Amino acid sequence: MLPAVAAAAVAVMVVVAVVAAVPALWHRLSRSALRRAGARYRRRLELLGTDVRLSQERRLRRLLPPGTARGEGRASGRGTVVGVPGVPLTPRVSRQGSLLYLDTLHAAFPRALAPQGTALLCWAPHHRCVPAGWPLPSLYCTPAAAGSIPSRAAALRVQLLFALQQRALHVLEAALPAELLDALAALRSGWPELAQDLALLTPNATRAAELRAECARGFEGIVQRLWPQLEVVVVGTAHGAEQLYCDVLRQAECKGLPFYCPFYRAAGGESLLGVNLWPEEPAPRFLLCPDWAFCEFLPSPAEEEPRTVLLGELWEGREYGLVLTARPGEYRCLLGAVLRVTGFHKQCPVVDQALSVRGESIPEERFCQSLCRAVGMWPGARLVDYVCVESALLGASSGACAPHYEVFVELRGLRDLSEGQRTLWGGGRSWLAPAPGSSARPLV
Ligand SMILES: *[C@@H]1O[C@H](CO)[C@@H](O)[C@H](O)[C@H]1NC(C)=O
Question: What is the pTM of this model?
Fold first, then answer.
């Protein structure tokens, strides 16, 4: 009788242990398979980089409709937009990008791929938000469905709550730096309620007490205090206005942590073109992968008779406008993106991102610097965010060579503007609901 009971108990214990081990086991198995695939693709990329001309030719042949790929002439002149917009990222390219991301992240931060060691902050109510490491869903402690909650504030709060629950977080990932900033602002303003929710819902009173203690000590470097094992902040984009948000985060809540922007995307994030293989470097630079898209380049500033050059014909230190063929049906799209070639990896160009404002070759970085300088003329003013559109007031009458912009800015720390200063900032239309102590005005 007794041996039978003991055997049953052992069997139950074994089953329990196996079931408990399965998610961790599953994670380890898939992680090592994906890392092997990532390393394989990395080697293939090295090989492709030894002959970018051939890789680009192959890519173009795959993009052209059947029967038209023969005898294509040398591409020249300005590109035109043809065909169907908004076809989603091709799964093959997106998968290869993610594999390179997992491989690169693991090489730089060996503990970064721990199960549930990544929290994702992103809001995408109409489509699923695709995180950088999507082939390995067990990486994330935040549920995928949270990103599609209709209210942005609610989505970020739910994701933050899941992240707070996990003390052993290694990576904090945000689709946009602004989302991370807003989630941390919600922590700043609502930590007592968040601590209460942690104690009641998770329920973990120890963690709730930790949260209360750390928030009471202030918010500088709060991210590293709440998650002591955190190694890196991953952001989906870090240029233009998003760069401002990264700078604010680096100086306050995320002090002491490296920021890593893994991908270079174009056409509103639809096309993946390059990958950042250097996560430890503060300024992102991207390797253009020769078999992800067919790229042509217009030397910038524009020449009298613009003539495109190919991926293998770029010069280090020069800037180029991008003409992209990334999907069947969308050929030679002139995107207005300006890239600066900072070096080469084999024959593949390494670029940094400099979006132009209206395709007129003013890199967005330079535009942003000028704007910051202009804002600096008001004592105490700080630029929080901006968006720039072509001026509708002058319209076509301004001519193609003299574009005028309408810049909407969100400022903080600006009070009691004199009448003279007010007129400089133009009319009284608000773009953002001004936060207390800030003002948002169009600058014409
Ligand atoms: C509760 O929080 C503490 C401190 O962060 C942690 O060590 C512990 O593992 C957590 N417990 C559970 C069940 O998650």
Answer: 0.81
